Amino acid sequence: MACRISELVIDCAGPERLAAFWSGVLGYVELGREDDGSIEIGPPGTGFGGPRPTLVLSPSSDPRPGKLRLRIAVTATDRDLDAELKRLLALGARPADDGRTGTGRRPRVLTDPEGNEFRFLRARSRPTP
């Protein structure tokens, strides 16, 4: 039997804000809240234990924005890349300086509303069931 990633925990200053952002990016819903202010989000209808990992946004007095040691990457599943980039930016993502700023080319690295970097992949993928 093999293991799988069941959840990813992101330390952050504002769990509400990041839960809303990542729910919008991934099509996730809120699954629960803990007494410490953590918010868990995941796929609708399956939640924890489903085929995709959940995200736990955990309040921290020392969040460290920038390049995470764990790299999150996203790609479009149901629209072209330019439309998906526009949607991510409308949700609050911002281009990170990956050497493409001002080149007119689609950014490959974005940041979430707290400045955590994630990659925007250049190829569409099929949605996970």
Search tags:
129 residues, 2,3-Dihydroxybiphenyl 1,2-Dioxygenase, domain 1, 25% strand, 18% helix, single chain, alpha/beta, four-stranded mixed beta sheet, globular
Count of domain modules: 1
Radius of gyration: 15 Å
* CATH architecture label: Roll
CATH topology, anyone? Answer: 2,3-Dihydroxybiphenyl 1,2-Dioxygenase, domain 1
- Unreliable stretches: none
Shape, per Cα inertia axes: globular
Distance between the termini: 22 Å
Structural class, by secondary structure, is alpha/beta
Mean pLDDT metric: 84
Count of alpha and pi helical runs: 2
Bin the helical content.
10-25%
List the strand order in the largest sheet: 1-4-3-2
Task: Explain what this protein looks like in three dimensions.
The chain is an alpha/beta fold and 129 residues long. It has a single domain (7-120), classed as 2,3-Dihydroxybiphenyl 1,2-Dioxygenase, domain 1, CATH 3.10.180. It has two helices and eight strands. The chain has helices at residues 15-26, 81-91, and strands spanning 7-12, 29-33, 39-42, 54-59, 73-74, 94-95, 109-111, 117-120. The longest helix has 12 residues, at 15-26. The radius of gyration is 15 Å and the shape is globular. It starts with 6 loop residues before the first strand and ends in a 9-residue tail after the last strand. The relative contact order is 0.20.
